Amino acid sequence: MGNWLGNDGNWIVAGVVTAILVPVLAFAAGMPFWIAAVIGLLVFAGLVFLLAPRRLFEGLDIKMIGRGRVAFARELLEGAVPAAQRLETTADDITDKQTAARVRHLVEIAADVFRKVEARPESANSVRRFLSYYLPRAAEVAESFAVIEAKRAPDIRQLEDVRAVLVKLEDAFVHYADGLVDAELGTLDTDLRLIQASLKEDLGR
């Protein structure tokens, strides 16, 4: 993932490109330094703008959704970012392949929840416990596994206990992610029954 709610990578890229471009123009192309500097400045400003990360909830009709709902969703997501980043980092620190894969799966599910909440801020309340409790706890448990695993003589039973908890956390993650999908389906079952009733009335089957 690497970019949960956007970052300042555009400034870094723009700075690197400018740092390379100015000397090339000034020395390799023989351009006067002040002209190269001006061009570099323009390129820097352009890249900062073009590569700027998309803002949270960009493109949504905030007035229609409600500023309060959007503010609540923003607070939940921003508060959950540190735990998500810790979980992602820890997945790379774990050497046990099966456990590392499970932690990466947790990261993928968390990212999916982030995307869904950003798309539908009104759904944030349904995953509040996930974002404020399960995600931080998952990061703590994964970090504990990495610490135990790094010992010269790891406690096998401790590792198995942590693995068992990660399995249950994975179930909880899936539960909350699928809950968001179920909410999007809304009245599907009712709609299907009404359609079937209409078809039976009109077509006799």
From TrEMBL:
Superkingdom of the organism of origin: Bacteria
Regions that span the bilayer: 9-27, 33-52
Q: Does the keyword Transmembrane helix apply?
A: yes
Question: Keywords of this protein's UniProt record, alphabetized?
Answer: Membrane, Transmembrane, Transmembrane helix
- Pfam families (UniProt xref): Halogen_Hydrol
This chain belongs to the protein called 5-bromo-4-chloroindolyl phosphate hydrolysis protein
Q: Which organism is it from?
A: Rhizobium viscosum
Q: What is the lineage of its organism?
A: Bacteria, Pseudomonadati, Pseudomonadota, Alphaproteobacteria, Hyphomicrobiales
